[in-house]
Design goal:
Largest sheet: none
Radius of gyration: 20 Å
Oligomer: single chain
Shape: globular
Number of helices: 15
Helix content: 55-70%
Length: 260
């Protein structure tokens, strides 16, 4: 599985373009084209978009805001009464910008907002990054379909928004390593405490699940040649390893020993 070394080795930084808004007519047309939704819902999406653009006419200024304001809704808050409603309600528009190549997003923001319906938005736009192909390949490797779908959707959505990718065939081990590094460092963010009560709770809760998702992605990418090193069987741990009796330790070491 994903090695501990991958969690501490930061990949080469990617030079990213300056984030920018799309033309208003482009976004209006995209929303109006979603005729499977009622008009009231679509009008609300456009209203939220215009509120966001009025508040931040320069999109780069939004990226400079505190993480809590960018996330919009803090843990425990109602969907109807978030601390920063303009950012919270603009997530659909922000996802659109990411899928259309107008902006890339930092992992701190993606960890803070929690749910991102990237694949739902992509489907509405006629974009297919190939995530379900990865799910089928994971199932063929023995993974439970529901688990594989959750893992691939979580991982691909965030790597896509971070790197501006449009095809899962472009995901590499460096992309996975960057997410792992971001997970490891998130508790050091000055605003981390606004979202999680402690680093331990984060590492033993959501971080553990996210690392498992990323490990499944690595396992699927390795046979494709997109990950250079075969994922290890042992998940990295945030705790010291357990001490095993000698006979149990011998069996465990034999199981973990790479095949020739």
């Amino acid at each position: 599985m994903a090695s501990t070394a991958a969690l501490v080795a930061a990949p080469e930084p990617v030079r990213r373009q300056r984030p920018r808004h799309c033309h208003e007519g482009q976004y209006v047309a995209a929303v109006r084209g979603q005729d499977s939704f009622n008009r009231q819902y679509l009008n609300a999406k456009l209203r939220y978009y215009r509120d966001f653009r009025t508040r931040w006419p320069d999109l780069e200024a939004w990226f400079a805001e505190p993480l809590a304001e960018r996330a919009g809704r803090l843990p425990g808050e109602s969907f109807h009464r978030p601390s920063f409603p303009i950012s919270h309600r603009a997530r659909t528009y922000l996802t659109y910008l990411g899928l259309q190549g107008y902006a890339t997003f930092d992992y701190q923001w993606m960890f803070a907002v929690g749910q991102l319906r990237v694949h739902d938005q992509a489907a509405l736009l006629g974009i297919d990054p190939g995530t379900m192909t990865l799910v089928e390949e994971a199932v063929a490797l023995g993974y439970n379909r529901m688990s594989a779908k959750q893992a691939m959707h979580w991982s691909v959505a965030r790597i896509v928004l971070r790197n501006g990718l449009t095809d899962v065939a472009d995901i590499t081990g460096d992309h996975v390593a960057e997410v792992l590094e971001a997970i490891r460092l998130f508790p050091e963010d000055p605003e981390f405490a606004s979202f999680y009560p402690s680093a331990q709770q984060f590492y033993e809760g959501p971080a553990k699940s996210w690392i498992t998702h990323l490990h499944q992605l690595e396992v699927v990418l390795f046979p494709r040649g997109q990950v250079a090193t075969q994922p290890r069987k042992l998940m990295p741990s945030w705790k010291p390893p357990l001490t095993l009796p000698p006979r149990m330790l011998a069996v465990a070491q034999k199981w973990l020993r790479p095949a020739n």
